[in-house]
Amino acid sequence: MSDRRLLIAAPASGNGKTTITLALMALMTANGTRVQGFKVGPDYIDPSFHQLITGRPSYNLDVWMGGEEDIRKTFFQHSQDADISLIEGVMGLLDGVSSNANWGSSAHVAHLLNCPVVLVMDIHAMARSAAAIVKGFQALSGDTAVAGVILNRAGSVAHATMVQSAIEQETGVPVLGFLLHDASVQLPERHLGLVTAAETQDQSRPKLEALGRLLADHLDLDRLWRVAMVDGDVKISKGRQPRVHFKSRPRVAVAFDRAFNFYYPANLDLLTAMGAELLWFRPTEGEHIPARATHLYWGGGFPEEYVHLLAQQTAMMGAMRERIAADGLSTLAECGGYMFLGEALWVNGERFPMVGAIPMETEMTASLQEIGYRELTVLANSIFPVDSRFRGHAYHHSKIRRSTGMNPAYAVSSARGSVGLEGYRSQTLLAGYSHLYFPSQPEAVEAWLTQRMD
């Protein structure tokens, strides 16, 4: 395991955690450093940018979805051959499942992994008050100490120097560097945050490299390197290992392109560890489900952004409908994939035909319809055994406009209680808005892969 690790946190969302994390990754990678990225929480988009810069998949560390042991295992497995691990936090440093404790927060993850915390602070329109914020985190962070600070959106070198002096004088926490405000290196955003790396990699890579150079001008990299050094390993137990016992190898088709790219790397790793072969295809480009596929996994994304292209792929959608319905291709669909397998998607009042494998139409909305962690219980035998329980997350700006004969897939609850029923099921198709975290229920995933293979 890498002896150098940092968790990049902030007082709140919007302070620049992603900006500074990507700048550090770009700077270090340009210097030949092997950087392993991680992301606290259920987000898909930020890890895709980590991978764009480092060339390595970035893994989610989520206490709610996977539990403490899963976090330790994930970190241990993927940090071993890295020179440094950079973990991007979520929301504010102390923001977790409860307002009365740090459980599920970035601070909780830092504690589990014996990881120093670097606090990113947006100092636009702020000076000495920044020291009070750092002092407050010192008082409330418990076992998770703030080891350093990086200032974001400094108006000038003089502004950053003034804030640095106040923080170091009042708290003793070193300011490791600062980033001057520069609109030319800002990345495009939409309602989930950044526009995905799969959509913008040609435009984003030069900006990220420029961001790294901009930070390098005002960063004490040697000092940051020393702060990142830790003593002692993270203790893990081996636990249950995936079994490979199929008479023939499962071949899982995975939709992946500009419109559909929301997949937890841990999910894909688990499928391959269990013996499955992943077959990638691009539905937005009109590519059909590979003929060799025995299973289909359709993740989320932004189908509404590419609805005109998708609606034109009539041959692809017709063949897909036939394979799912008549051929009984064992299929799991989540969020954007769930919407695409419906009969139509409405965007700005216009109806666009979709696959038609699920008897519903969905509609994009201006307001957020659902957000938060979910525990999902499978209601009947389908691709997963009845009563299988997964943990996952939901976030979507669409709703069901019309449906007929929908047998719900899951009973859904959150950390705060029951949410209701969700999704659609048939004997060979399970779909819903929630994104499942496979390591929370590996036995059910194994049962899915076993279908049609024994």
UniProtKB/TrEMBL annotation:
Cofactor: Mg(2+)
UniProt domain CobQ/CobB/MinD/ParA nucleotide binding: residue ranges: 7-192
E.C. no: 6.3.5.11
Domain CobB/CobQ-like glutamine amidotransferase: 251-440
Gene3D superfamilies referenced in this protein's UniProt entry, alphabetically: 3.40.50.880, P-loop containing nucleotide triphosphate hydrolases
Swiss-Prot/TrEMBL catalytic activity: cob(II)yrinate + 2 L-glutamine + 2 ATP + 2 H2O = cob(II)yrinate a,c diamide + 2 L-glutamate + 2 ADP + 2 phosphate + 2 H(+)
Matching InterPro entries: CbiA/CobB_synth (IPR004484), Class_I_gatase-like (IPR029062), CobQ/CobB/MinD/ParA_Nub-bd_dom (IPR002586), GATase_3 (IPR011698), P-loop_NTPase (IPR027417)
Keywords: ATP-binding, Cobalamin biosynthesis, Glutamine amidotransferase, Ligase, Magnesium, Nucleotide-binding
Record GO terms (molecular function): ATP binding; cobyrinic acid a,c-diamide synthase activity
BP terms from Gene Ontology: cobalamin biosynthetic process
CDD domains: CobB_N, GATase1_CobB
Pfam families (alphabetical): CbiA (PF01656), GATase_3 (PF07685)
Active site: 335 (nucleophile)
Extra remark beyond the main annotation: The a and c carboxylates of cobyrinate are activated for nucleophilic attack via formation of a phosphorylated intermediate by ATP. CbiA catalyzes first the amidation of the c-carboxylate, and then that of the a-carboxylate.
Function: Catalyzes the ATP-dependent amidation of the two carboxylate groups at positions a and c of cobyrinate, using either L-glutamine or ammonia as the nitrogen source.
Family note: Belongs to the CobB/CbiA family.
Protein name in UniProt: Cobyrinate a,c-diamide synthase
Organism: Sulfobacillus acidophilus
Gene behind this protein: cbiA
